[in-house]
């Protein structure tokens, strides 16, 4: 009797719907989990390219060399950048430029797009934004005066991996090598400058260095990754993660709802048809 009831219920369309709903719910949750994991890994990979590093340290003054040496001892790659605004001259024509001085390791991650392609700021030369070239009526191979230094224009800088978006940055970009900064005389005590140090490595190395570094930071110094970045890229990363979490939650809710509807349909059908095996046995005896 129990076996007949079990087989009848097992082969009933209502229970089949329940099993299909359960299978579909599990498949959807697993698929979304896999997609979310892949997207998160992809976003993490792109985030290091957006920053040209895994972590960054921003400071209004140069940090102690011992901090950088400690990072290198822990196996981290370290890059240095200095940004400041200064006047540039092409002959007697002046133009304010936003200078970005980088070391030879730049960019640690991502691509620096230049014209001609494959250029990097070398000592004695600079890369100019197309707008700065147009404003000063310059071309590749000409020279430009940056403070006290006269530097050769090696080409145009089209896109920086860590440029971000700053609506208040009105001056066009001039990119140079850190080795030429002292020659310009543009950076003096009291000058408004921003130092950025980029660090690359695995999570264990970064976490260990972060624990060592944070207690030593001054109020004007900030250690951050893209997730903690207050800029547009940081907010985009945060919204992407929130979207993935919301998608997973909605998928789970829909799966639960589908199973609940299927179970409700099955239970109603069983009650209407007297699907209980004891009732079925009682009906059989009454008929006999």
Write the layout of secondary structure elements.
Blueprint: H1 2-10, H2 13-51, E1 55-59, H3 65-73, E2 77-90, E3 93-102, E4 113-115, E5 125-128, H4 130-135, E6 143-146, E7 149-159, E8 173-177, H5 181-184, E9 194-200, H6 203-213, E10 222-224, H7 232-273, H8 277-287
Parallel strand pairs: 3-8, 5-7
Antiparallel strand pairs: 1-9, 1-10, 2-3, 2-6, 2-9, 4-7, 5-8, 6-7
What is the number of beta strands?
Answer: 10
List the helices and strands in order: HHEHEEEEHEEEHEHEHH
- Euclidean distance between termini CA atoms: 15 Å
Shape: elongated
Class derived from helix and strand content: alpha+beta
Please estimate the helix content. Answer: 40-55%
Given as residue ranges, the uncertain stretches (5+ residues, pLDDT < 50) are: 280-288
The largest sheet is:
6 strands, mixed, barrel
Number of folding domains? 2
Radius of gyration: 32 Å
Number of helices: 8
Strand content: 15-25%
Give the rounded overall mean pLDDT.
82
Strand order of the biggest β-sheet: 2-3-8-5-7-6
Note down, in words, how this protein is organized.
There is one protein chain. The chain has 288 residues and is of the alpha+beta class. The chain folds into 2 domains: 2-45 and 238-287; 55-224, no CATH class. It has helices spanning 2-10, 13-51, 65-73, 130-135, 181-184, 203-213, 232-273, 277-287; strands spanning 55-59, 77-90, 93-102, 113-115, 125-128, 143-146, 149-159, 173-177, 194-200, 222-224. The protein has a 6-stranded mixed β-barrel with strand order 2-3-8-5-7-6. The longest helix has 42 residues, at 232-273. Mean pLDDT is 82; it is low at 280-288.
């Amino acid at each position: 009797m129990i076996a007949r009831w079990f087989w009848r219920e097992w082969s009933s369309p209502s229970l089949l719907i329940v099993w299909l709903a359960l299978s579909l719910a599990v498949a959807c949750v697993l698929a979304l989990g896999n997609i979310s994991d892949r997207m998160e890994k992809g976003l993490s990979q792109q985030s290091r390219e957006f920053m040209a590093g895994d972590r960054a340290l921003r400071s209004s003054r140069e940090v102690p060399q011992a901090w950088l040496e400690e990072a290198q001892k822990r196996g981290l790659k370290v890059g240095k950048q200095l940004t400041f605004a200064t006047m540039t001259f092409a002959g007697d024509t002046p133009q304010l430029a936003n200078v970005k001085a980088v070391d030879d390791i730049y960019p640690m991650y991502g691509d620096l797009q230049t014209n001609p392609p494959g250029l990097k700021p070398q000592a004695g030369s600079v890369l100019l934004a197309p707008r700065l070239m147009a404003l000063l009526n310059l071309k590749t191979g000409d020279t430009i005066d940056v403070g006290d230094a006269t530097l050769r224009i090696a080409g145009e800088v089209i896109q920086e991996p860590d440029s971000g978006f700053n609506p208040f940055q009105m001056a066009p970009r001039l990119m140079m090598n850190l080795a030429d900064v002292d020659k310009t005389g543009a950076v003096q005590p009291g000058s408004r400058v921003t130092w950025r140090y980029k660090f690359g490595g695995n999570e264990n190395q970064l976490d260990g260095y972060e624990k060592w570094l944070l207690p030593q930071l001054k109020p004007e110094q900030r250690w951050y990754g893209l997730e903690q970045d207050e800029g547009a890229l940081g907010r985009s990363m945060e919204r992407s993660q929130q979207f993935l979490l919301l998608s997973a939650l909605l998928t789970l809710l829909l799966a639960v709802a589908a199973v609940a509807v299927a179970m409700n349909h099955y239970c109603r059908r069983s009650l209407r048809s007297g699907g209980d095996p004891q009732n079925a046995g009682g009906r059989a005896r009454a008929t006999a």
